[in-house]
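Re: Re: ligand-bound prediction request (bumping)

Still looking for help on this. To restate: I need the protein modeled with L-homoserine bound, output as structure tokens. Inputs repeated here so nobody has to scroll up.
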Amino acid sequence: MSVIKVAILGFGTVGEGFYRTIQSHAEELTAVLGKKVEVAAILIKNQKKKREISKDVLVTTDFADILNLPQLDVVVEAIVDKDPTYIYLKKAIERGCHIITANKEMFAHYGTELLELAQAHHVSVGYEATVAGGIPVIQTLRQLLNVNRVQQVQGILNGTSNFILTEMREKKLSFAQALRTAQENGFAEADPTNDVEGFDAFYKAMILSRLAFGEEPNWHAVERTGITSITSELIDTADRLGLRFKHIASIKKSVNQLKVSVGPVLVGNEHPLYHVEGVQNAVNIFSDIVGQITLQGPGAGMLPTASAVIEDLVYVCQNRPERQGFTTTSEINSGRQEQGEIEETWLIAGYYNVTNHSVQLIDQVTDGIWIAKAKREEIDALSKLNEELVYFPVIGEYEREHVLAR
Ligand code: HSE
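Reply:
Sorry for the wait, this slipped through. Here it is.
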């Protein structure tokens, strides 16, 4: 039986999870691929660290050793940094290898170049593990929604943030305690700033944007915030109002313009994202034929991410051609209102005399917390006058009775 030779770059949570899964699911892989999968080499950083790796595998700190292997079919990359990782993958493609990556920051920066290079070299790129952990959202958009015109993608894309928000609400943990637990569970990035300040979700949103809409917004124009401004008091108040804080990335095309935002949103209990708790991620896809689809599952962790990588292994070994030129949705949305023109519900918190402004207050929850109806531009104008003010959009049903019943 012929053999597929794989190299793994990085042996952290993702690399190790994939290595173990290749062993635990060897039979299934052979049955699907008709070939045996063998790990030929692993690239590591620290030679002194103890690892459980078979003696038959070349363990090296030098990428050149991997590139020089006599047979190499697939390179699986699970390193954190974007450089020199991009160069490694470029070299692997040029050598004729399929590549698989779990590195969202790298893929957000260099994905287009890698996909083009792969197309030129007739190899495939798997990047399922870059977005939403174990949820097969990339393959859903890539292979199963080819004719549908996607109008909006909205998702909880950072497991660590969702985990922290859930722990703070359910167990009354402090932000720092909840973050520590997320780190202990292997959910958080090496530098958790990426998680809690929204960078990780931002990179994932850029990858989804390219896939769903064939383009991405100007990165500097995207409003990106994390969860660090959300206090236990705000979480409790939201809870009393029947709302939950979720960190949501939203990508939408209206009047030929891509609108992307990444930040905390208050979600009403009829919205599909309301019940997504802990390290779970979820992605809502709105498209013209099927309507709304919600995919939900574990967004981080060793085995969920290994699941995404191992399924990519099957995908790349079947070598589907890289698809360029995605469907554009500009024509179908051209009659729709600009997002800024629509009045939305907002929770506004801070000590400020909001009565002087055009923002229509509908409830005062406490001394410093109001519910208002306003257009985005009105909220922006209000926040310019007081930088201390924090404000969150409310999606899903907001039930006024929760306040009145207090
Ligand atoms: N730190 C990431 C998260 C890992 O918490 O979602 C998965 O990408």
